[in-house]
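fyi for ur records
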Amino acid sequence: MRLWEIPFSTNVERVTLALAHKGLAVEHVTVDPHDRGEVVRVSGQELVPVLEHEGTIVFDSERILRYLESLFPEPPLWPAGDARRAEVDIFVDWFNKVWKRPPNLIDAGEDASAHGLQITASLDLFESLLNDRDFLFGEFGIADVVAFPFLKYAVDANADDDDRFHQILRDWLPIEGHPRIEAWIARIDERERA
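which gave:
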């Protein structure tokens, strides 16, 4: 298995968390974020992550995560029951299509104040999800993998990471008053990455 990635990519981190959870080894192919010709050559598009496995090329972090789950179901990322799986799928869809929209709009140059407040307001939701449990939906799983690489910027101050999108997350995710999120970030951050 090979994984094309750029440094500090939130979507790549999703995949490396999932690979490690499943005990899967991967060869890392680091790509210059300013020259994605190799990614285009391999996948026909320029975004990372891109996974190559036994001749199959998969891109988009969510598609890669579903691909891994279908081939390597143990240990699972998604819950077994249909209703629980549907709940988690709704969360993943919400996170990708709704939660990620405000920071992407700010990054694209739209007014930060209105969109930033949406990011900040979401912290109360995550704090509630973590009431009386260590992970977003009880057991470690896909919801944690999908959300952590973004929410970690509430406490991440990596001086080597000057990515504008990540700075937007740092600016609009004030951790004060959210002890359960802070503890959750620490728990997930201790997990292995492939």
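The CA atoms of residues 57 and 64 lie 9 Å apart. thats all i got for now
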